[in-house]
Amino acid sequence: MPDKTTRTRTVDWADGKVRLIDQTRLPAEFVLIDLETPEAVADAIRTMKVRGAPAIGVTAALGLALAAEQARDLEPAAFRERIATAAALLRTTRPTAVNLFWAIDRILALGQRDAAEPARAAAEMLREAQAMLDEDEAANRALGRHGAALLPESANVLTHCNAGALATVAYGTALGVVRAAVEAGKRLHVYVDETRPRLQGMQLTAWEMLQEGIPATLITDNMAPWLMRQGRIDAVVVGADRIAANGDTANKIGTYGVAVAARAHGIPFYVAAPVSTIDASLATGAEIPIEQRPPEEVTSPGATLLAPRGIAVYNPAFDVTPAGLITALITERGVATPPNSETITALLA
Ligand code: MRU
Predict the structure, then answer these.
(1) What is the per-residue pLDDT across 76-89, written as a single tens digit (0 to 9) for each?
(2) How far is ligand 1, taken at its centre, from the CA of residue 264, in Å?
């Protein structure tokens, strides 16, 4: 049976605050934190207390609703300025996950529309942000069902990073597919890439699989192609941070290498994401902004400096997998096989 910890929403609205599972403390400790200002919400996103594209989006939406709640007694002009400032701050936190911008735009539009009556605008913004919580879980369950149908009755599945319940409000995208397949009676075993440098696979996906009782084995990133060569992997399922109109997909650094290896071994490579992760304004993946993270993430795993002081470091947090390497894009609206401009336009229609 799932432990209560995986049934706790990753992000929620509680007692007039934004409540998060602090993912920087997992797997050692399961700690909930309550954020009382939009600045604290922005900081939590930037420092990856909350991470994963859908979770980032909903957290920013709640952070903006929080700013509105705190400004509900102001004059319309001041209210308008306060929510614009909060939105601008939240936008600076993580550049690649498009769900962040999608969610902020959606909540800000309501605030601007109703700004003549700040109290009403604030209530509308909070209602909409809370609706996103349920929508996210429903989308994940739906895409999970679509994806589960693609997996064999018995399979070894490789995943990279964490696209699980912790990366969403609940249930997960790539791990939502795994969960749905297991719920449908399929016998799955998951190989978990540790996912250097931030170790989301080792710290978060491995933890989730143990909580759910889904058989899983942790490997270092450089082992995956060799396991494929040995015939030990039947399918790859990963999440996405931003998908261009042609299907090119930004996801955690290392995803591209997994896709190349999967293609070389004839293994299906699936991307699972809600349609809110599709950025139809970008023609190809070349236009996706790639976040650069601090060098310490590379030099100091677990906060212990292991590299020689002074070495130059390159730390892109994401890479882009060309659509041609992706077998199918699994969304809550159905599956785009293969993902390209036509199949994605049809999904969005
Ligand atoms: O840097 P992170 O941990 O936010 O990166 C997360 C990923 O790359 C996930 O695969 C992606 O956001 C999809 S989460 C459902």
Answers:
(1) 999 999 999 999 99
(2) 24
